[in-house]
Amino acid sequence: MLMYTLRRFLHMLPVFFGATLLVYFLVFATGDPIAALSGGKPMSEAVEANLRAQYNLDQPFWVQYGLYLKNLLTLDLGQTFSGQAVNDVVARAMPVTARLAVMALAIEAVFGIIFGVFAGLRKGKLFDSTVLVLSLVVISVPTFVLGFVLQYVVGVELRWTTPTVGSEAGWSDLILPAIVLGLVSLAYVIRLSRTQVAENLSADYVRTATAKGLSRPRVIIVHVLRNSMIPVVTFLGADLGMLMGGAIVTEGVFNVPGIGSVLLDAIKIGETPTVVAVVSVMVLIFVVANLIVDLLYALLDPRIRYA
């Protein structure tokens, strides 16, 4: 297991550096950050030269990227154009987005697996058909539409919660945004769990376990669920990174002061240092989440360690 963990960690490194290089190149290839900062207004040569030197924009691309990586490895994310440390901006916003993503992940894991398993056990019955139709509807509707509908119904009409999140963003304030953020993935978890359970119920090893006289609850819990959960766990782990990215839309709808709002504001004003820094943090979270998923996968199925 130790060698497998080391191999997976070494595989993670080129993915992280390759992704940050691509992000850095794409962000800075989309335009001149100093021109975006000035908003088309004239700027003195001295001020422009000072800004380019401050953000290393007067250096060749590879030198800029090397300096960026050097700062990144020392946990220095640079400064915003307004002079704030990006570390401080990320440190204020990231806990809010992390709470939102964890709540969304918990919702989709708990309800997705429960509904998916029961649908798989009742394949072809009314409950299975109803769950399949509802999950298809959720998948078909864009997240921002689901957000606006639930915001209006739950927050405005029923008044069960506030339509938008305040600056404090407590756990209770984030329940509705977390439901919206996790709904689409919840539908995928339901369908994935349902398919896996339905397929494994007809597998030879399940028939053998039943023929040996094991009770149905034991067959389902020990044999069916363990094998059915491997792809579900893989999906949930990879989805954590997707939730962090998807939070941009949900945070915008509910005015959540998280990392998605920071990224959206930075993109609007062309603040490239903040965009690159925030995206790099998201890439790091994504690759670490995938590393954890691979380790869990190896624990669930030991054959993976020797593949």
Automatic annotation (TrEMBL):
It is found in: Cell membrane. The keyword ATP-binding does not apply. It comes from the Bacteria. It is a multi-pass membrane protein. Keywords: Cell membrane, Membrane, Transmembrane, Transmembrane helix, Transport. Residues 94-297 form the ABC transmembrane type-1 domain. Pfam families: BPD_transp_1, BPD_transp_1_N. The chain crosses the membrane at residues 100-119, 131-154, 174-192, 232-254, 274-300. InterPro entries: BPD_transp_1_N, MetI-like, MetI-like_sf. GO terms for biological process: transmembrane transport. Its main location: membrane. One of its GO terms (cellular component) is plasma membrane. Belongs to the binding-protein-dependent transport system permease family. This is Oligopeptide transport system permease protein.
